[in-house]
């Protein structure tokens, strides 16, 4: 009987197993998961810290038991894979039941990502927001502190700032960039959200952390030192490829290189999720996007191919959406500087519009930036910050960017108009029109 | 000096004039508008009736004075065009300053739509929700009544029902179809919204009005008779082509036939807005869509071409979005039966999902139907009813349908994921996946 082994029971791993199970009802499927959770959702941790829910089981889409009973997938939680023998096709693991080995016909590597770390002298008050399995103890510790430093002003740093200020913590946010979310947004919209957050949080921008001392109670930067009760490090994540980095080909991004079928350089070994490299559809170049929807779809594609139904993963456009209190923040495609770096000749327009018809009560500002290539007229990127209906506009632009829509193609998208939630000239179309007319 | 004459100062007319002005600063531009309003927004009338705003000037994006002073567009309000002489290129009009004639080099016909009427014996209590210029007197009358019948359960009928029930009126809604919005939604989602509205409104479905009597106080249907205080007729609109129907070529939809440049069968005569036929991008066949964003873009295209910058209008996909209280209702493309009629072999999936991550408080149901063609695998249509983020998902599907995305193309759209407002497997993607797997 054919056997599939999956290393890592997160989004990609469980998506791959489930798809393979559906296509090959007879296949033996075994999943090794190092923690107690499967199909878990790290994106939920900030909201757990905020106190929006208390049941840690809600981090899981399905329980291990569900997979075992309903999908006949042999999930082994609290079991860490220690070694892979790629030539003999054997996985070695270690768990509460001791050591074990498992032979495979197909292997899926879905070990996810791991947080980048900072050097620290002691670490009892240094926190990384990463795995739901640690969320309960993390929250307990954070709630007991008063003044908390966050190092890093990317998406996770901003989400942590929202969570902690909602808990009435005093927050100090130290960020290397000149404005928050600078890896997601260009300066125009980055400033909007930085100004907003600066009302709640003490911001230190353009400042680099040298060292964390006293177990997280003292932070030394290139510009000063800060005493706090504890420190969250949120300076980004990297592919977790420890298990395979010397055995399986990695890409230029440091993640595992795969073909369109999610196959590594070993025919029977697939890789999916945050540990896996992708291709940026706009540039055609290797790219790495550690987000759950991409991980899920990569897993689905790997599972389809293992299940005998060939499917190709088309690549990514780096869609991101987050929120800070009343603001939603979305972006997709390339930033303007990134576009230049890849050899495009970007033109852009940034506008501030309203979210509702002028006569409809409650309209809010919405800020839109659209970036296009002057030569090919293709849309390269879009960024939106606003209080209503940001997500869907970003989704629409993701579709447009994935299929190479031109400026004019996008202008003519027949967007819906409802006075209560939009404008007859949608803010996105107004930005596009500005590029057309400039 | 070149002269452009525009008949009708609504969305299309003012969009065409403004675009032509920008491209040809020296051109003489004259707009004839039969009412006192220009660049007005009929879509706002239900919200005015609901009492969400009181200033009728808010119906106008810009005032006539603004166009005259800032854009040097000679707007003549309260002036009705009575005759066009296409061979001599002369327009005859009549207003408060008496009769006048105006020669043109370019003509734009943007006379909009008019409500379909029902036979009635007397009409002092029969109301049509159509032109913002009549909104103040219409609202005054409606607010003075207690029990009001609405004939027609399309978008306008539903919006009127929302407005009147919010004003605590007793509403009787009589509709020929078996469920509400049956020209917009298939039965699955139509039922959801019909059930919701039936909680507030007395519904008579599958019932045909024979006659309105006693000036709107008595309605005779094929199944009964109803005494009410007044009657709103909302059975649809038709192209307002009275002025030109014997002179300019109409299309099979009854609207003015144009080429991609918005030109009629007279080279120098353009048509734009609700009086104008379009092409359905999915079927390639003539189609008619009387909605403001389409009218605005048609006007923009006509104005660009008149201004010497050639531009083509790509056609329509019939995007619609409306709301009823907590529900947003969107749709785009073809309905399933319509798809069959046009020779497609539709396959579809209908799902009910949630609007937020399972751990995020406040999630609501969202209902999604997606329709695709079994042979070409192209997406043909999408319908969504839900309480959050409906608009943007419809916009995304509009982009997909306009450019012929396949089922798999759409599955791979990298939609944004934020636990507060979406799911890691977006409900749209879940519906698509269901079609793929069935």
From TrEMBL, chains A, B:
Coiled-coil parts of chain: none
Keywords: FAD, Flavoprotein, Oxidoreductase, Redox-active center
Pfam families in the cross-refs: Pyr_redox_2, Pyr_redox_dim
Co-factor(s): FAD
SUPFAM superfamilies: FAD/NAD(P)-binding domain, FAD/NAD-linked reductases, dimerisation (C-terminal) domain
Domain Pyridine nucleotide-disulphide oxidoreductase dimerisation: from-to ranges: 321-423
One function term, GO molecular function aspect: oxidoreductase activity
Domain FAD/NAD(P)-binding: 3-283
PANTHER family: NAD(P)H SULFUR OXIDOREDUCTASE (COA-DEPENDENT), PYRIDINE NUCLEOTIDE-DISULFIDE OXIDOREDUCTASE DOMAIN-CONTAINING
Family according to the record: Belongs to the class-III pyridine nucleotide-disulfide oxidoreductase family.
Annotated protein name in UniProt: CoA-disulfide reductase
Lineage: Archaea, Thermoproteota, Thermoprotei, Sulfolobales, Sulfolobaceae
